[in-house]
Amino acid sequence: MRIIQVDQQARAVTHLVLSLSLLLAGILILGYRYWEPTQLPLYHTMSSSLLLGAVFNGLSLLTFDLHSKRSWQPWLSRAFAVIGVVVAANGLFGSVIDPYDSQVHPITHGLMGLLSLWLALRLRGRVAMRVQALLAAPIALGMLTMIMLHFYYQQPLMARHPIGSLISCTLVLLAALAVWNASRAGHEYLPPVSALTTWMVLLGLAAATSFGLLTFHSQMNNLREQGREVAQNLNESRRSLGSQHLRTFERVVERWSDYPASHHDRLMDADVKAHLEDIDFLESMMLLEGTDVVWEQNKNGDSHYTHLWNIDPYLRVSAAASLTRIEMLIASRDNSPDGTLMFVRLPVEFTEAHPPQQEQPERPFSLLVVFDVPLMLAPQTRIMESPITAYTMLGRGVLIDYAGYWISDEQKAYLASKALFLYDSALVTDYNTSGNPIQTYLVDLSSLQERANLEVLVVFAGILLVLMMALTVERNRELVLQGRQLKFQAEHDALTGLFNRTTSEQVLADRFHKNKQQTVLFIDLDGFTYINDSLGLQVGDRLLQVLAQRLEAVVGKQAILGRFGGDEFLIITDKVHDNQRAVKELTDKLLAAVAQPYRIMHHKIYLTASIGVAHQTDDQYAPLELVQRADMAMHQAKRQGHNHVQVYQESMSLQFKSSAAMRSSLQEAIERNQLALHYQPIVRCSDTATVGYEALLRWEREPGRFIPPSEFIPLAEMTGQIIPLSEWVFRRACEAAVQLQQHGPCKVAVNLSTLHFNRSEFKGFLERTLEDTGCQPQWLELELTESILMENTDYAVDILQSLRDKQISISLDDFGTGFSSLSYLRRLPVDKVKIDRSFVAGIKTHRSDRVLIGSVIKIAQSLNFKVVAEGVETPQQAEFVTELGCDYMQGFYFGRPVPLDDLFES
């Protein structure tokens, strides 16, 4: 039973919070977008159409109530929703009201419009509302998944700006959740929310949304300031670097003007070679007359840059015929694809001499130097690495990055569609007064996405906090009902609705000392575990529910009925104390109720139960003693064949105590190695020679007092102690087999436990034991009963065959006492069969036993089994089984079981 349900009051609060979230978020963000003064694309994170859609959907939801008594309210809600549909269509098919391109994905407009359409249709009826809820749920789940993907991919998925992408998904998510909630509650009346809760929600949501907007505004201002700083740093570094290198060549030009005529050419040539060698980013130096090249020297020794100067249209068009100041030109991208090449012209005036072959210069001379810009900017590039990248725009509309490389068309498209523009300034140097534009972009949005994720999480947390506070305030009046439900759940079983174990014990404790005539009936179902395992827990649970109803009908108000645990039930009554007739009538009704067939799904099930009855007596001092006695009686009823009623008797307690004591003593005997193996010889019938020994376990609990194996072996099997016990026996028997080989070849037969054999690790254990003790497989013989082979025939046959293949002998004990068919026996991988001692003991007095043992021997021989006769105690018995064809004999006539050391002494 659910204690705290999402009732209509909670739905009304959720409806209010979601509706106001949409309304306030849309109004505040829309107002901020038009109020922000700079109006840079950095701030254009949201679509006005989507924001207006959120506003009108919020208004439609606030006035949404299918059961309103105000006639105008449904029409007003529908009108708001219709406006939301129109606004969504505007954003989907080309916005008229959006002044900026925010690049919000069209699917957000489509989904918001679809939600508006559902609100406008105002479908009635349970089926229609459920369909509407089922349609809204995938939208909410999809938007929630999209928000989570922002955390994984660290990039915007639904808009250009990270915060815009997240807000778009969030608005659609809130709208979908609101429509889903309204659809789930729409077929019932939504109770009004108190004014206190409404104002608390309004102020809390306004604070959460305002906090998100202020945080966003602060971050955008910081980004813009960082963009301005990057542009200024780029401008300063370019100015400093340009001035430094251009002054070098200004000094070169000045020296050329002052060189004496006799050494002019030699000194110019030395200057050129020195600068080409010392400046790694200097590619070429040329002397121009007008715009024509007189000579060129470069690092490659060819005229590559002369050719580039003559063919590059950008250089030829931009170069001035008459040069009075320094001129800087950039070669086209086609002629310098590996990076920007800058051509710098400096005017040269020869005063004392003229260059060779130029006696009467007609046009002015100039020095043309070619710089590899990426190489020149390399030191600054390492310093300027940042998520915010600056680009310089050349006059021809192309961009180069801060490292001096051309911006590809793909990179330019990325800047236009993905990166965020931050700041625009001009590159102004001492030699470039026109100023090329410098534009800064936020290229790596991962850090911005992280901050956006954090902002949205904070806003979500604020909305959830407001929702939780509102639910707390509104649900205080339900605390009494919830308390009752909690009390019911604490006292009753969740599956059957009956009292649980704790309550049943408490009821018994309350009555135990007040009315000392209590009787407890402990009911346990027979074989219920098999129903769960074969038919499934669902069938089992339903069966318990039906049974609980039947037991309640039988017990009525005259007793307390509880589910004690699993398939156990407890009945407490004072109506049948020491009244055998009343007990029998009640238990007969209970057994009859349990025995009636159960129809669960397509199954027809029959069931029985075992019942233990215990009456309160004066020697009981605690209530649980009465339950314990009823439990003992129930287990005794199960041992008597199930579907039985047993009244507690004092002997049961003594028996259980004796078993418990023996269990503890047996465990101590195992741990302290107080058990021993005795060995009884097995002789060959033809010559009475000893061919082997059977290892028999003995427990000397007290000096001279041995506990029969028939008492402690079943107890060990029931408690699981048989496994370590069996492992101990195998190890000791293998060690004995190794010692016995020193006195002649023989086998040691070991009795095999069913539980140990059925363990999957038995084969591996046996192989390890043989290896550890040095025992050869042919020295060992395993004795097993037909019960081992009958429980899991195929598994048993496979394991035994694999052991037999390793030369381990297999012997079938107590042959003739079971019920195996001959066709079944033919499949068994058995070497020997042992005729039970009960047949041999009756040879002398019962002719039927003599006939029967002869038949058993013939059956075994027909199956090619060797035959061992057990319990041979007289010469007549030995002679008789030999005449009948037995191969081996075993019994007191040939030797009693003795310890291994005594065996060697004899």
Automatic annotation (TrEMBL):
Domain EAL: 659-906
Keyword Membrane: yes
Record's keyword annotation contains S-adenosyl-L-methionine: no
Pfam family, one: GGDEF
Annotated ranges, domain GGDEF: 516-650
Alphabetical UniProt keywords: Membrane, Transmembrane, Transmembrane helix
Protein name: Diguanylate cyclase (GGDEF)-like protein
Natural source organism: Pseudidiomarina maritima
